[in-house]
Amino acid sequence: ILEIPSKTRSEMHSVLEKYFGYTSFRPNQEEVIASILAGKDVFVLMPTGGGKSLCYQIPALMMKGTAIVVSPLISLMKDQVDGLLAAGIPTAYLNSTLSDSESAEVRNRLMKGDLKILYMAPERLMMSGTLSLLKKANISLFAIDEAHCVSEWGHDFRPEYRKLSELRSLFPDVGMVALTATATERVRKDIVSVLHLKDPVIKISSFNRPNLSYQIVEKKDPNEQIISYLKKNRGKSGIIYCQSRESVERLADRLNKAGFSALPYHAGLSDDRRSKNQEKFIRDDVDVIVATVAFGMGIDKPDVRFVIHYDLPKNLESYYQETGRGGRDGLECECILFFNRGDWHKIRFFIEKKPSKKERDLAFQQLSQIMNYCESTECRRNALLRYFGENLTEPCNNCDSCISPREKFDGTKQAQMLIRCVSETGQKFGISHVIDVLYGARTKKVKESRHDRLEIHGLGKSVSKDEWKRIGNELIQSGCLSVSGERYPIVKMNEKSRKILAGTLSVELTEPLISKISKTNTNPA
Ligand code: ADP
Ligand code: ZN
């Protein structure tokens, strides 16, 4: 096990924040980066989306000279490079899409030591002209991306990658890191041997944290729900994440009044206050820290036994990160997320106010991913891991979906109503509009499209709008309705919808979330 000197660690963190805007490393990133900086050869297996790029980009930024990144797809190089340039990192690529004068310019900058990172395809790298150029330049590191391409046993063998086999002896003193998302044991060994990695540090990441149990509970009276939870878990260490500073303060206060030891943590406190509160939590002087997402960077408290999300996290990424602060010692940690649709409306409202369309689109997309996660009946762990490109084949038996699967009810009538409404509004609208019509709303859009004159208008009034949304989502997820459309998702009928409407197919729907926690709070201890 590599000891990371604290100076290196803090430099790594500041590079992470300064150039990439992230506050904490993903599993294994830190170890990989430190090993590269220590001059080792490294083999990295991480699921897609696991953050392999940072594993070589950060050392590239911290080392003298230029890192050479080998990447198979010329089409992706430009995107990578553009991204790095936008972050202020001097980067370029060498490939056949460049004109002679453009390549000459890149070579020039390499020789002058102007580039931190240079991308190229393997065939370009192994050309004798390129090799002799690199010999004269100052190379910090070779990063071989999609390293499984060297192996004939893999699914994506590329003969050009085989030639990389000579690299190790041509540059005996330059560290090499091989990265891939897909490698069986056999391919892994093949990569190490073809590339002649020297006594490599091998890092294999799964994002699975089996000792974390994931639960989503309906948020009803969250303060009381939390208090009743704490009563049953006295003396355990835990983090409660809230969205705003005000709610952090309010909840911490409320918990103290109820006789629990809790401290607040958010960016509005003085540096001094913040570090004192954090210190007290780490030293076990206080059980609970109530915090905004500002809390957590560099926190390495091993025995956090619960992580509660009072509010909906921004996205699945942050959710994984924040819950990941629990159970570092490998022992059990309960991760509880309070969820209701009201929060969703609140977040939508904030997103609408963002000035840039690109940011809004991203935020809406992330919000809908986390909504689907919450409303899904799938194993939570499987769903979360799938987001990071990993596939568990078995349900985990350690999440609310696995342990207490939600009840089902015959939702054929509701499904028929909703599908009929899709049909009568002409299959030209998103689910929100369809539900507005069904619910009997008189929005501008409803009036303009004269959908308030349809017979179906208002027919679904006895069910709440949120419940209709939930039903709509479930029908879409189970393929009873289709969604299409480039810019706006439009709901359409399909084979299944028609059968349901014709009464030849019945539909089972899931009951809304009923939490174990909220049940217990009706008879407070
Ligand atoms: P991979 O190459 O493993 O598929 P990437 O390097 O493209 O994954 O990273 C996937 C996404 O995760 C990118 O958007 C990247 O910016 C983000 N990411 C990587 N590391 C971190 C981190 N430490 N914190 C937050 N996001 C990260
Ligand atoms: Zn599960």
From TrEMBL:
Domain Helicase ATP-binding positions: 33-201
Catalytic reaction equation(s): Couples ATP hydrolysis with the unwinding of duplex DNA by translocating in the 3'-5' direction
Top enzyme category: isomerase
Keywords: ATP-binding, DNA damage, DNA recombination, DNA repair, DNA-binding, Helicase, Hydrolase, Isomerase, Metal-binding, Nucleotide-binding, Zinc
Keyword Magnesium: no
GO MF entries: 3'-5' DNA helicase activity; ATP binding; DNA binding; four-way junction helicase activity; hydrolase activity; metal ion binding
Helicase C-terminal domain residues: 222-370
One GO CC term, this protein: chromosome
EC nos: 5.6.2.4
Top-level division of the source organism's lineage: Archaea
Keyword Isomerase set for record: yes
Cofactors, names only: Mg(2+); Zn(2+)
Example GO BP: double-strand break repair via homologous recombination
Family indicated by similarity: Belongs to the helicase family. RecQ subfamily.
Record-given protein name: DNA 3'-5' helicase
Species this chain originates from: Methanolapillus millepedarum
Included range, full protein: 12 to 536 of 877
